[in-house]
């Protein structure tokens, strides 16, 4: 086995730390070819699809990619902005703002970058670049509040596979989940209350989480339970009674049974049952993306209105809201304990003062001479 070539190293180099904010990913463009590349990488992950590889290869390459790529590209075109993919835009903003928030808390020697599990910037490439910059302590912060083997577990896989080819591995820390983190729940609460302050309160609030096959729950994946706990804590924070909200699961794919109830048919039934005003929030997504802006805000809205509903409100994701940036800082800060993110800055300040004294002394000697 051969390892990657190590960057040049000098003994005595100061330790440097970084946070990598990792989101799911997005195509590079809303085109059939770009979406096909993205879907192939995403759906080839055995964490995402647990079907024997030989069987799945034929299904993916001969059935799904030829037909789904064009359909998905058309959907991406409905949400694409002049700056690019909303998910990528918001994730980049979150990384930049998180670094600024941690700087205000005194972490002046700490870099925050984003990476994508699928697509670009690819997580292995980001980790490689950090190593080239002399970073030897890395904290990985998934953009998924609720743990699932299909999401957070896949990030672990990608990181470990990358470092399986690295001789000098940095110190690593991983945030596993934050589905019940108080700051995260409060950020969600604030976003809902801000929407209600402007638009009034609905007949019912639907909390729609991304779905996964029911089989994963039966095999021990904690995702379903963590989604329900997030919903329960958020409802309590909003002082909602059980009849004022409900949990659903979206983005079902294939013929297998997924976590239920499914969002779209449930929303349509609510309209038929007489619900006139419905609000939908997607707590499992920290950045707006195809699944929220197109699937929920467009497709599910249409289902509700077609079934007789009168008012449908999609409440945006946390995105770059100040409450969420502060919550991210609260979530990651305990994982930085023991790392010299403050000490290194103090040392640099002392070195700068020493250099200023040395320059002043040199100037004084020059004047005396």
From TrEMBL:
The keyword Iron applies. It catalyses: Fe-coproporphyrin III + 2 H(+) = coproporphyrin III + Fe(2+); heme b + 2 H(+) = protoporphyrin IX + Fe(2+). Residues 350-369 are annotated as: Disordered. The keyword Acetylation does not apply. Keywords: Cytoplasm, Heme biosynthesis, Iron, Lyase, Metal-binding, Porphyrin biosynthesis. It is found in: Cytoplasm. It comes from the Bacteria. Its EC number is 4.98.1.1. GO terms for molecular function: lyase activity. InterPro entries: Ferrochelatase, Ferrochelatase_C, Ferrochelatase_N. Pathway: Porphyrin-containing compound metabolism; protoheme biosynthesis; protoheme from protoporphyrin-IX: step 1/1. Fe(2+) binds at residues 210, 291. Pfam families: Ferrochelatase. PANTHER family: FERROCHELATASE, FERROCHELATASE, MITOCHONDRIAL. Catalyzes the ferrous insertion into protoporphyrin IX. This is Ferrochelatase. It comes from Pseudoduganella danionis.
């Amino acid at each position: 086995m051969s390892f990657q070539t190590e960057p040049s190293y000098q003994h005595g180099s100061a330790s440097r730390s970084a946070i990598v904010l990792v989101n799911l990913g997005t195509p590079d463009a809303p085109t059939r070819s770009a979406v096909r590349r993205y879907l192939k990488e995403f759906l080839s992950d055995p964490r995402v699809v647990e079907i024997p590889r030989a069987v799945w290869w034929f299904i993916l390459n001969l059935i799904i990619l030829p037909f789904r790529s064009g359909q998905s590209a058309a959907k991406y075109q409905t949400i694409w902005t002049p700056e690019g993919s909303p998910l990528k835009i918001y994730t980049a903003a979150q990384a930049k703002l998180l670094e600024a928030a941690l700087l205000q808390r005194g972490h002046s020697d700490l870099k925050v970058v984003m990476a994508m599990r699928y697509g670009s910037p690819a997580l292995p490439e980001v980790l490689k670049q950090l190593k080239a910059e002399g970073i030897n302590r890395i904290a990985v912060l998934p953009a998924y509040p609720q743990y699932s083997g299909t999401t957070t577990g896949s990030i672990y896989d990608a990181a470990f596979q990358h470092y399986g080819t690295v001789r000098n591995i940095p110190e690593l820390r991983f945030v596993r989940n934050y589905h019940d983190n108080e700051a995260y729940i409060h950020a969600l609460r604030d976003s809902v209350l801000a929407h209600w302050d402007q638009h009034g309160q609905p007949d019912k609030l639907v909390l729609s989480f991304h779905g996964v096959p029911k089989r994963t729950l039966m095999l021990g994946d904690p995702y379903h339970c963590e989604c329900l706990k997030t919903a329960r804590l958020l409802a309590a924070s909003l002082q909602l009674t059980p009849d004022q909200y409900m949990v659903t699961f979206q983005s079902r794919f294939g013929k297998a049974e997924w976590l239920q109830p499914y969002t779209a048919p449930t929303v349509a039934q609510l309209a038929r049952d007489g619900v006139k005003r419905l609000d939908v929030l997607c707590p499992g997504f920290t950045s707006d993306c195809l699944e929220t802006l197109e699937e929920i805000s467009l497709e599910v809205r249409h289902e509700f209105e077609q079934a007789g509903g009168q008012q449908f409100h999609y409440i945006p994701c946390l995105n770059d809201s100040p409450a969420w940036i502060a919550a991210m800082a609260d979530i990651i800060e305990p994982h930085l304990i023991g790392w010299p993110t403050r000490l290194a800055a103090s040392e640099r300040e002392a070195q700068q003062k020493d250099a200023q004294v040395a320059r002043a002394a040199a100037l004084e000697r020059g004047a005396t001479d």
